[in-house]
Amino acid sequence: MKYKTVVPPKVVMQTSPGQRIFRVVLLVAAFVLAIWLSYDYGRTHAPTNGQGAVALDPESGEPIAALEQERDTLKQQVAKLKQDVQASRQALEAARVGVRMREQANSAPPEAPQADAGPADTAPADATPSDEAPADEAPAASAPKMDKRLTLGDVRIEPTGSGNRFRYSFSVTYPGDTTKRIVGTIWIAVNGLSHGDPTRLSLKGISAERRAFVKLSLQGQQTVEGEITLPPDFRPKNMVIEAKPYDERYQGANGKFDWAAGG
Questions:
Q1: Which side of the chain, N or C, has fewer Cβ within a 10 Å radius?
Q2: Buried b / exposed e along 195-218 (16+ C-beta atoms within 10 A)
Q3: CA 202, CA 71: separation in Å to the nearest integer?
Q4: Top-ranked range on mean pLDDT: pick from 38-52, 132-146, 174-188
Q5: φ, ψ of residue 65 in degrees (nearest 5)
Q6: What pLDDT is attached to residue 211?
Q7: What 8-state DSSP symbol labels residue 53?
Q8: Does the pLDDT value for residue 1 go beyond 60?
Q9: What are the phi and psi torsion angles at 7 (to 5°)?
Q10: CA atoms within 13 A on the CB side of 138
């Protein structure tokens, strides 16, 4: 008797299209959810306020410190240079002032006081060397040629209607080339006694114009005239005059002239 083998039937389950779409949606949703959870975890656990910043290499700070030190050094050098410039400016200004003072001192006559002297200077009348040795009495060895020297002359002192006011006049002459104009200054002072004491009066203190000097400007000859008022109780002794050219090629003239009112 023969037995037949019985083969069990195969059951094929067919999935509907709706189920397949549902599975795909679930897989996509799971993938998106996983990505979102990863992002949220990273965001919530991220370091705040720079606490989790990566530490800098200690060696990277050395160039910054060197640059800052070099910057401070340059600042100090600039400050020192500014101080040196300021000191140089002050020294230059002091030198200029010294030069101006020396020029003024050289241009002032030996007999005349300073420009700001008052009408009652107390310097002795015979205190300066030029009072004893005017230019026309200087030694011949130190005197330049005659054609380069100025001369004073025609000195006159005349009284006016006022008892202590006088009119003076004199001439300055250059015997050389009369086509050349010589300019400079003419200083005038009066020596005498005030209350018995030797006193010198500058032109600025006794002239009506209150000027310190008279301008020298001549071509051959210049006549100088003016008025002076002497203080009370002053006894004039002589008038000191000095004509000083600016050009050093010419020698000026100076001298003392006895006070002779009306002469």
A1: N
A2: eeeebbbbbbbbbeeeebbbebeb
A3: 63
A4: 174-188
A5: -65, -40
A6: 86
A7: P
A8: no
A9: -95, 125
A10: 18
Token digits of residue 125: 């009348």
The model's pLDDT over 19-75, given as tens digits with 9 standing for 90+, comes to: 777 777 778 788 877 887 777 777 666 555 555 444 555 555 567 888 888 888 888
Question: Can you tell me which residue has the tokens 């420009």?
Answer: 115
What tokens does 236 get?
């004039």
Q: Report how many helices (DSSP H) and strands (DSSP E) the chain contains, helices first.
A: 4, 8
- The length of the chain in residues reads 263
∠ CA 105-196-190, rounded to 5°: 35
| Contact (Cβ atoms closer than 8 angstroms) between residue 167 and residue 225 | yes
Contacts for 139-147: CB closer than 8 Å, 24+ residues apart: 143/251, 144/251, 146/175, 147/175, 147/176, 147/177
182, 174 in Cβ contact below 8 A? yes
Query: How many other CB atoms sit within 10 Å of the CB of residue 243?
Result: 30
Do 244 and 187 contact (CB within 8 A), yes or no?
yes
Q: In the structure, what pLDDT confidence band is assigned to residue 123 with cuts at 50, 70 and 90?
A: very low
Closest to 131 in 3D by CA, of 258, 246, 236: 258
Helix (H, G, I), strand (E, B) or coil at 254: strand
In Å, how far from its chain's centre is CA 137?
44
Q: How far apart are CA 116 and CA 59, in angstroms?
A: 74
Q: Which residues pair with 235 in a beta bridge?
A: 193
Tell me the two tokens of residue 42.
């990273």
Strand order in the sheet with 221-229: 151-159, 165-173, 221-229
* Token pair of 229 as six digits: 């008022």
- Write the single-letter amino acid at 110: P
Rounded Cα distance between 106 and 81, Å, is: 37
